[in-house]
Amino acid sequence: MDKTMSLPQAISTYLRNGDTVALEGFGHIVPVAAAHEIIRQGFTDLVLARMSCDVIVDQLLGANCLKGLISSFIANSSAGSLHELRRRIEKSDPEPLWFDEYSHGGMVARYQAGASKLPFQPIASYRGSDLAAKNPRIKSVPDPYGGPDIHVVPALNPDLTIIHAQRADMHGNVQAWGMLGIQTEAAFASHRLIVTVEEIVDEAVVRSDPNRTIVPAHVVDAVVAVPRGSHPHSVQGYYDRDDEFSRQWSALARDAAAVQDWLETNIRGTSDHDEFLATLGSEHFERMAIHDAYSTPVNYGGRA
Amino acid sequence: MDKTMSLPQAISTYLRNGDTVALEGFGHIVPVAAAHEIIRQGFTDLVLARMSCDVIVDQLLGANCLKGLISSFIANSSAGSLHELRRRIEKSDPEPLWFDEYSHGGMVARYQAGASKLPFQPIASYRGSDLAAKNPRIKSVPDPYGGPDIHVVPALNPDLTIIHAQRADMHGNVQAWGMLGIQTEAAFASHRLIVTVEEIVDEAVVRSDPNRTIVPAHVVDAVVAVPRGSHPHSVQGYYDRDDEFSRQWSALARDAAAVQDWLETNIRGTSDHDEFLATLGSEHFERMAIHDAYSTPVNYGGRA
Amino acid sequence: MTLSAHDTTETRSRDEPSETTSSDVVTSSELLTVHSARALAGRNVVFAGHGLPTLAVSLAQHTVAPDIEIVYESGVTGARPPVMPRSISDSILVPGAASVMPMTHLFNYVLQGQRIDVGFLGAAQVDKFGNLNSTLIGEDWEHPDSRLPGSGGAIEAMAGAAEIFLVMRRHTPRTFVESLDFVTSPGSKKAAEAEVGSMPAGSGVTHVITDLGIMTRFARDEELTLTAVHPGVDPAEAVRQTGWNLQVSTDLETTQPPTPDELALLRETLDPTRIYLR
Amino acid sequence: MTLSAHDTTETRSRDEPSETTSSDVVTSSELLTVHSARALAGRNVVFAGHGLPTLAVSLAQHTVAPDIEIVYESGVTGARPPVMPRSISDSILVPGAASVMPMTHLFNYVLQGQRIDVGFLGAAQVDKFGNLNSTLIGEDWEHPDSRLPGSGGAIEAMAGAAEIFLVMRRHTPRTFVESLDFVTSPGSKKAAEAEVGSMPAGSGVTHVITDLGIMTRFARDEELTLTAVHPGVDPAEAVRQTGWNLQVSTDLETTQPPTPDELALLRETLDPTRIYLR
């Protein structure tokens, strides 16, 4: 089944105001272009699930897309603070944000329970942490094997998950390599799934290496080709991260008005991701060039 | 650190009488040669953990290595029954066998809890099954999120796990492809870990494709090169399965005396796996030849 | 095992194959495969073992469900083996497949994750509510008369799939029983009546395809009902061969024989060396 | 920021680098890195972030612990990046690495799985029992004065690793506090005193390496004790810069300055462009 579509079409088809939407990717293969399209289409009242926050969280907040956030790390990686987010949490400026906070291990466990259709997942690390005291959704169950009560976190089942990957075939068999994050679990946990990729490839490429598939086609609703869809994050084998962009964001976002200007000019003022990239200029991307380093092929042969 | 050693040395160093030992591999990359070496060294009172049984279970039983079995499928795949095992369970012949039974999903959950150092893992599939009624180790906990009580299975932490794979480097970074079974979880769940491989390769080969590594070196105690170590099971890209061998076993093992003769001649009567293979004859393996089918290399390149 | 044309209006004997509209001789395997395939219309993701279920899904891909996808217990999806696999862990399934999942993903995210529309199962015993026994025959659980393979992933398929199709080559009172010796994979009714555990996701067994006909059941508390017999089968024979008081639909139908197209696909394209079409 | 030779016996000021036996000027980063590396002797598997911990592990590989292996939160093990990574998710870590694990394996099987000997952490606040705060500063949890990044994987590293090494660039009463504003990652004592949850696997913080010296603690109920000061540091200064009544070891030692070999490795081999050796 051909599940390819345009990014605007995929977002408008599979996202609804008020949805819980997971955008995953751990500093690598992040669905940035999809987040920008959510801003362009003006969605509101979303709850964003994202383990490690980054510029897109500040941008979605600035664009007033979010009423809530589910996360376990809310800085801009090593580039500094996310000031739009800090204003919301520290000063309820411009309004309060519902923030459901876990550790990375807790988010992993929540997605895993969601993907497994379990009500909860046990987690061993929360004994004595104020995180568990603060969050009423972190509970405990007795251990019928004689140990102490153990903490549990509830399943996370997003309405929509969006992930970015190196490649997929048109049916939605998704392949990724390098740092993988929690994308497979976020995909299986979700009711709907959009995958953006650097390239849609012939299925023969995918099928030459079936262990490389991180999400099988039957879980996928839409496949969208979005080259440079992860910028300013890297895509292994395609382009490097743009640290300058991330650092500049942390400086810019100290000023709430500057965030609004940036969104107006760069996101709402561009019709799509290609136009957004064009505003950066093609020389911009020369800095993100990579060298090639190909894997040694493995033999999948079976009986003759 | 060079962790390579011979198979006899690895087994004698890391196995003790009375251990719980996991031999995993789901009809593919099965540590058969290691099981045979356990027989040669005359270990006793072992509890074997193995999701899907096969000829090695009958052989270990016939050699009186096992006092117990933890499993979820006790036939000889599609090749018939395991008669040594059936005699033990149906007639306590020659003596009773402690049999701790689960479904495949239950075994997966047990290994997962073991690898994760959790006391148990919830499982959604046991409501109404006599399997849960029969096995007192399958328990339940309340759902603090309002659902019905949910079944849980206890962590499985073998004393020793042995897995077989296509290749590893001398440090113990293990790579496998094709059908993977529960090897990664069995490896992490275990206190000690032996990996047998078709080939020990230069670390540059492993490092050209780090996402292919199923077990990282720091979990591994010994790496052993055992070509054709999975026979009569297949190894993707190396050799095909030997269905005739498996079928013949199911016929032979109807006769308990024949099992003893077979073990005496083929296992105890051979000094190692190479000698065992030699008894089969080199033409025997021509039937198991494969064709080649190489994966398309992927680009792991980073910034220049 | 051959059947002459004049037998079609009579009750045929158990060991005789049925006949097609084109007067070809149809084997029991072909019959079961064709009806399994037809029942897959409208379904998308199937969990199946090797043999008949694999063939049925392949036939459905060529007929009633072109986009249907098969998932194997070994974690393989989108397999395109050059020859029929010999088991679900035959490595011939892997080259050219769309994905190979680790077992944690298959059992946790696909089966328990409720991603399967139809799971194909077999069993040693089935009862009127579609509870299945694949564990043992006998009354002493610790020392059964006959110890069977056990669950494998059957319990997870039953609990997680939206529907289960049961394929039984021989419809007899020893396999269609009033009371199971052991409930390996409970149907939705028995599961619901239990006191502990997560509720199953699906309906349990909805179709039983046998050499005599087809039983169906749609609601949780509904018994399996004989809704169709194969051409030439007396419904009374199906009742006799069932160990409980089998309900027969008031709208009992006679199944449409395999079409020449279906048979040609099976014989010439899908299993030309007749590995499964015994 | 330079230091003349005659200062070595005096109490040096906070912003002055310490000195080595070879009279090279040693930066605070170099000092912390060298002492972190030395503390890794005898350890095998380290969980570390980028920057100082990465450098410390690299230095240990060249000196006290040749076989030590580093695991990054992004799932990378055995990384051999051609240049220093800019973060734990820098894709420069991947080419030529020994493995890249999915996050489920890293968090469940490696961290919770108790496979880590030493986890390196930082924190905004630490108390006398090695409890750590990386969540917020202020009294109102819902509206903190300053919202910090939060746990990330710190809670899991603290609970799962056998030991935690804490590296603090600036030893001040604002960071070494009597009472944390928020206990993100509880030490072993606080965890043990809690009423619910699995007991932590390890000892919590065993080493705190600061610009003034080294604190250690070995047993669960033991406070962090000042066991060494860097050359030229008055132990009273370390006590003054600590927000609780810091215990000073009766066997207080003076740390051995970085050796010429250690400095040469750091400067010429490991971080020649001085990305971290500020």
From TrEMBL, chains A, B:
Keyword presence, Transferase: yes
Keyword Transferase: yes
Gene Ontology MF terms in the entry: transferase activity
Lineage: superkingdom: Bacteria
Matches recorded under Pfam families: CoA_trans
Coiled coil region boundaries: none
Keywords: Transferase
PANTHER family, sorted: ACETATE COA-TRANSFERASE YDIF (PTHR43293), CHOLESTEROL RING-CLEAVING HYDROLASE IPDB SUBUNIT (PTHR43293:SF3)
Family: Belongs to the 3-oxoacid CoA-transferase subunit B family.
Protein name from the UniProt record: 3-oxoadipate--succinyl-CoA transferase subunit A
Species of provenance: Brevibacterium sediminis
TrEMBL record, chains C, D:
A molecular function (GO) term: transferase activity
Gene3D superfamilies attached to this UniProt entry: Glutaconate Coenzyme A-transferase
Composition bias, Basic and acidic residues: 7-17
Cytoplasm is among the record's keywords: no
InterPro entries linked: CoA_trans_fam_I, NagB/RpiA_transferase-like
Keywords, in A-Z order: Transferase
Residue numbers spanned by region Disordered: 1-27
Similarity-based family: Belongs to the 3-oxoacid CoA-transferase subunit B family.
Protein's recorded name: 3-oxoadipate--succinyl-CoA transferase subunit B
